[in-house]
Amino acid sequence: MSEILYSLAGKRVWIAGHKGMVGSAIVRRLRSEGCEILTTDRKDVDLRSQAQVEAWMTSLRPQAVFLAAAKVGGILANDQFPADFLYDNLMMEANIIHGAYKAGVEKLLFLGSSCIYPKFANQPIVEEALLTGMLEPTNEWYAIAKIAGIKLCQAYRRQHGADFISAMPTNLYGPGDNFDLNSSHVVPALIRKAHEAKMSAEPTITVWGTGNPRREFLHVDDCADACVHLMKVYSDDSHINVGSGDDVTILELTKLICDVVGFPGEFVHDLSKPDGTPRKLMSAAKLRSFNWKPSISLHEGIADAYRAFLGGEYAMRAYG
Ligand code: GDP
């Protein structure tokens, strides 16, 4: 077991972004930690407003913060809304991290993304690969904002001794995902396409790009479990990868999803859509050294995501 450096029991814990896929999974996971869970609604506090964030933090005084609030989206949304992805994410991070410092927050975990790494980083990608090469252009806006978030945590730790840490999850999926075909990530998009094709007995579904890119996937409940674990055992200025340590091709993923959904048809490739980065597998070695590993296989996880989709998670949101 890793040494417990910070206990959440009895603490006032704010989950910024609790309605998102990751934030809601963290709320579910925290229910067994004996802490008081604090959340804010978008209509009450616009996280892009420094004044609103600081007023809220000063009055509610959270002791620990999970910074899961973000404007997120798949490969197409990132490319189409660069200003939103850069501005909204920068503002939310800066306001919450600076606000946490001012309000005397004891511990903060910032959630980033594996897209912070260079497009052609050696695989599996170790934490030290950050800022060693060009980013993937289809999501560089989001990536730059997330890199700024890591640097903010480091800067407040260095200058003010704040115990702020950063975790970089791989591609996540699961309950609460965004199933809108234009803005979603690949897993919810393919679940929806396979399900709708099955229901209307269509012979094919469309897969974007060549199907050759390789991606790593993690169920969001595993991610939430890793975040809670890191909050307790990790205190360092370097960010830490949160992944499964395995990857699959998009074609292998498509076959698995069709199998789970029960869609017997074929795939056609839409080559007008981008492949994005050729491979994105993060090294899980550092996280393993802190005694954490995932417990949900890709097959089980996809089955769970499909159940959530059928259960009405099919919310048509612009982005997560
Ligand atoms: P990325 O990991 O940032 O590239 O984000 P995505 O999850 O959006 O895409 C991952 C890969 O899946 C890319 O190579 C996409 O071209 C591919 N892909 C295949 N079909 C789809 C689809 O229907 N939607 C999305 N978003 N990606 C798809």
Describe this structure in words.
This protein has a domain at 12-177 and 216-245 and 280-296: 3-Layer(aba) Sandwich (Rossmann fold), CATH 3.40.50.720. With 320 residues, it is an alpha/beta fold. The chain has ten helices and 13 strands. It is globular. 41% of the residues lie in helices and 15% in strands. Residues 74-75, 115, 139, 171, 184-186, 189-190, 207-209, 213, 215, 250, 273-276 line the site of guanosine-5'-diphosphate.
Summarize the structure.
The chain is of the alpha/beta class and 320 residues long. The protein has helices at 21-30, 50-60, 75-80, 82-102, 140-160, 186-199, 220-233, 250-261, 285-289, 298-313, and strands at residues 12-16, 36-38, 64-67, 107-111, 164-169, 171-173, 204-208, 214-215, 217-219, 240-242, 248-249, 266-270, 279-280.
Give the full name of the CATH homologous superfamily of the domain at 12-177 and 216-245 and 280-296. Answer: NAD(P)-binding Rossmann-like Domain
Shape: globular
Question: H/E element string?
Answer: EHEHEHHEHEEHEEEHEEHEEHH
The assigned structural class equals alpha/beta
Hetero groups = guanosine-5'-diphosphate
* Count of strand segments: 13
- By CATH, the architecture of the domain at 12-177 and 216-245 and 280-296 is named 3-Layer(aba) Sandwich
Q: Please tell me how large the radius of gyration is.
A: 19 Å
Q: What fraction of residues sit in β-strands?
A: 15-25%
EC number: 1.1.1.271
Pfam family, one: Epimerase
Function: Catalyzes the two-step NADP-dependent conversion of GDP-4-dehydro-6-deoxy-D-mannose to GDP-fucose, involving an epimerase and a reductase reaction.
GO molecular function, one term: NADP+ binding
